[in-house]
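Batch manifest, entry 17 of 40.
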Amino acid sequence: MGAMARATSPLIALGYGKFVRADRVYALVPLEGHARGDGRRTLVHVEGIDEPIVASRSEGAIAEDLAAALGQDSPRGRRSSGAPDGPEPLF
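Output type: structure tokens
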């Protein structure tokens, strides 16, 4: 029997050419106030990296991609088709 190739977790885009493996992300922290600006929107904590990575994408957008990559329901209560469960969100 031949060796089987291991499937790796999909990469998630953080913006500005930064990518991380979906199964290594353990926390997303949105930046607020003076910490935000110049493309700084979210801190992404990744297993194996001491300091969080600064992402230019929003926490929600990254969370949506993580859920899809890991085969889970969307964190915002959306179906996989992208249709909202209830009324269309305002924000």
